[in-house]
Amino acid sequence: MIKRLFALLAAIVFVPIATAAPAMAYEPVNIVHTEHVQVGPYGLTVGFSTWPLRAMQSLDFTFAPDGGLDGKTGTFMRTGPSGSHTRPASMVRHPRKRDVWGLDVFALPVEGPWKFDFTIDGPQGHGTGTLSGLQVLPQPGPPLTLSWIVCALPFVALIGFLVVVWRRGNPGRIRASGVPTGVAAG
Amino acid sequence: MIGTSWDVQWHIDVGPDTFFTLPHLFIYAGSAIAGIAALSVVLAVTAAQRRGETPDPRDGGVPIRVFGGAFTAPLGYLVTGVGAAAFLLYGLTDLWWHTVYGFDAVLNSPPHVALFTTISITMIGAVIVAASARELLWGRIAMAISVPVLMTFFPITANAFQGLPVPFDSIVVATALIIVLLLVLTRVAIGRPGTALATAAALLVMQGILWVFTPWATSLYADSVGLPMRDGMGGEPSLIPSGIPLAGIVAALVIELLFRRGALISGGVAGLILGFTFVLQRPWLGYAAPVTTVELIATTIAGCAFGVVGAFLGLRFGATLRLREKVTA
């Protein structure tokens, strides 16, 4: 009986998984807004899949140099509203749009003005350029504190459970119940 | 047996959660199976109780009366079931979160931290189930599998504390605390020399399997959905297996050797070793910025202190796992 029950459960869980795999095609990159940046001798089109930008909301970024990627390498550095910035990272092709560079499902974490610094090396030499004043609006959804409080509940419950277990496991009680600890504690 | 089968399931879960969709389904399937299994057992035990049979605490731990005695639930299955139910609830929260914020793959978003906590709760239930069958071979095997799985998973929750202004590496120290706690707990709960070492050996084997499996499964799955692997990737070992201290086996050896002289001392030394080696392991494998000398010293000392705390907690929780009296809640 139990065996049959488990076979049934396994079927309920695994059949959808086995048949769902081919249906998981990925969405194309849909650019709804672009900005133009002059990076030395190279023109660069920065594309956004969502506009305007909001803090913590992820989107696709594309970086398309005029004339394609052939023979070019580049770096990208982002600076947040507080002035702290990342290390310059090499440009990589967008995983779902292989003819341009990009970042897939990426979020800028805080609201305020952001700045992107680019460098490109290619047939016409080295170039640098900046996209500044990229305005990021406040985060959508409920306040972050509220989200954290709701999501901390399991952790609080776990601590509560452990405290109860701890109190039940006081040494007097363990000795009284005749459980051999088998060790000389501490 | 049910415990073992979950543990194998959890095994599958821990590996693939650094990438998307199909692995994601595996995680949900793991919790669903654990939850349904726990519910089935609780119903079966309740039915047996109504027939006038006395529940055997070896089947999943101390029986607990819930809802004023409407159900009789062995503690381990109760904890697992509650964890799995909460997991599915927070799964919905996560779904909503992603519709608001998109699919940026971060470990420490609020719903993700809640999900990791609920999975850990489910796994704690599995450990209780395993420990309550310690006289039986399957119980000890389930213990040797479920404890390393919990060791791997529980410290992920420490990502939530990453921003704390402390001089030491909070993830390293949390990992050292959990590992020492669970090694000591296993040693006390099973009550046989060598069990901590066996657990650490199982952890090492699991790490090895994940090390090989994760990149293989990732590239296989990427191929099957027609996605290329990212540019500029390659070389680094996978995130989850890299996040397991390689020196776990050394820590277990120390605990085995020093245990009878004093469990707290053994925990402190094990924590010291874990703190020192793990804080170096993370940058070595490319998952953290290089450590400064101050960080290295602070993390080693903190690892030692938290190792003592871990041993202290492990002693009492391990002894509590051996209790078999009936409880009314």
UniProtKB/TrEMBL annotation, chain A:
Residues 1-25 form the signal peptide. It comes from the Bacteria. The chain crosses the membrane at residues 146-166. Keywords: Membrane, Signal, Transmembrane, Transmembrane helix. This is DUF3859 domain-containing protein. The lineage of its organism: Bacteria, Bacillati, Actinomycetota, Actinomycetes, Pseudonocardiales.
From TrEMBL, chain B:
Keywords: Membrane, Transmembrane, Transmembrane helix. The chain crosses the membrane at residues 25-45, 66-92, 112-130, 137-158, 170-190, 197-218, 238-259, 264-284, 296-315. This is Uncharacterized protein. It comes from Kutzneria chonburiensis.
